[in-house]
Amino acid sequence: MHLIVYFSDYTGDETTIAKDLEHIKTMSQSNNKEEGITGVLFYQNGNFMQFLEGEEADIRKKFAKISQDSRHTNIRVLFDEPIEKRYLKDSRMDTFNLSKNETIDYAKLERIKSIYTHNLQIKSNTLIQAFKTFLEESTLFL
Predict the structure, then answer these.
(1) Could you count the other beta carbons within 10 Å of the beta carbon of residue 126?
(2) Residue 102, SS3?
(3) Cα(104)–Cα(119) distance, rounded to whole angstroms?
(4) Which strands sit side by side in the sheet containing 94-97, from one edge to the other?
(5) Model confidence over 70-112: pLDDT tens digits?
């Protein structure tokens, strides 16, 4: 199994993000099942953070396709490494809009947090720092 986690900047705006997230979720849930890829996508105030898990060749192919998507730019890879096992077994691609005025499904977020904090063996401190940075750079909590 392999994991890629990346950050990127959204090229749209708040008027288009809901539609884009819904499209990404619908397409990903359909395609990822066939490709054996699981993951989760977070959006917050102009930025994406995505986790992708699967066989390395499948993840690299998917990431190459994602990298060409015009809905984002300035892709920064945080993790690109092997993992012991798949941690998001049931997630074909949940999406979360963490921006202001959006309803947040905290139960799903807690499930994802629990999966990674209890199971992820690689660089857990770096992963925690990544989440903190992602949240600190937004205005969600201002």
Answers:
(1) 11
(2) coil
(3) 24
(4) 72-82, 2-10, 47-54, 38-44, 94-97
(5) 999 999 988 888 888 887 777 678 888 887 665 555 566 566 6
Tokens, residue 77: 């890879």
- Read off the pLDDT of residues 117-138 as tens digits, 9 standing for 90 and up: 555 554 545 555 565 565 555 5
Tell which residue, 113, 141, 9, has the closest CA to residue 51.
113
- Entry pTM: 0.73
Report the candidate in 50, 111, 60, 61 with the shortest Cα–Cα distance to residue 81: 60
Which residues on neighbouring strands pair with residue 41, listed in sequence order?
Answer: 50, 95
122 Cβ contact list (under 8 Å, min separation 6): 3, 79, 81, 83
Name residue, tokens 């807690």. Answer: 110
Q: What are 75's two structure tokens?
A: 């892709």
**How crowded is the C-beta side of 105, counted as CA atoms within 13 Å?**
8
Q: Could you identify the residue written with the tokens 């401190």? A: 125
